[in-house]
């Protein structure tokens, strides 16, 4: 049944309000308000398990990322940006809903209760997923007149057939779902086009004809070309460089004196970087450069699984840079990631900022950029920082919680970073100004800071059906 036939009076009113609240206003880098031909396009490019040190512009020395570097040279690079969580699904839930992991629906790759039960291979798994009442940035922008699209990884469906991108604001979806094994991997045999499964004969029977990273790039490019005449929100969610380490070739690194996994990892990022370049060139060729703000980020720290083989690769490339920890860790290496924003003529080029920001900020930022009414979130609009990179940081708390393999929490407050292992465990406290690698716990020296952070944790964590507190 057409979803339009199911609009309740409440949803109709909500849609009307969202649509009429958007004004075609732009603010240039000097702060002058000017009439705009249209609202800006918003492109968010997300890498998967790419570490803080996995791009040249963030310090990578062994392989190159010229197109991501171009984003930074033509835009603003954040040096203290944080993902929504230390693993994939909750990080994306935070990005899409604007709610931190103390509030968002999906807080881990698995659920403690509720959700839906399914299979990952032979393993039985319970997963959380977005439900009908959850609103995403795609919902808000679509109902405000934007064309919305997701190319690639969703990871918020769990095993619920109704929790798919097209039911959460994305008018166009081309990619894969957690609940459909044939759509997964770097050479999938099938792929979703909206809610229809499409066969990929080039990859049938184990063939490796179409590479996932290339497919996502081509779909993104096609969408830009076909929607150049209207404002759009395009979410480009690559799988790379998530394990398994697999590429169609070794690219520029075939002759390096490295192990095969190391060559492959570098090539995976090269293919992703080339995809970023193609997207930028398509925007330019379509005359959309100064009409489009492009964000680039990663969903969490490096090392998809804590195996010796993957650890060797990540350590070889120093993928977490100067930071301590990997994916699944609440330390900086698990949650601090690259974030770059580029908008020619609006965001000053070749700037950096050390303002602490995190994924909940994307929803209010995108709404502010679109001129839309604000919605409830745990973030702030970064638009003032984008247009004025020298602006000083707002004093606020950033919060995370995580459940794998046991409950953990973390808080960033100014120069302070707190980490807790286990429910009710003592807080570790680090001064990131002097100890960015989190090597010296100074909690005993600053009881007043620990007490204030404890208060924020109590105020922020809310149990849910999927993540209940112990009885």
From TrEMBL:
Highest taxon of source: Bacteria
Alphabetized UniProt keyword annotations: Calcium, Hydrolase, Metal-binding
Occurrences of domain Sulfatase N-terminal (ranges): 40-372
Gene Ontology MF term list: arylsulfatase activity; metal ion binding
Pfam families cross-referenced by the UniProt entry: Sulfatase
InterPro entries linked: Alkaline_phosphatase_core_sf (IPR017850), Sulfatase (IPR050738), Sulfatase_CS (IPR024607), Sulfatase_N (IPR000917), TAT_signal (IPR006311)
Family: Belongs to the sulfatase family.
The protein's name in its UniProt record: Sulfatase
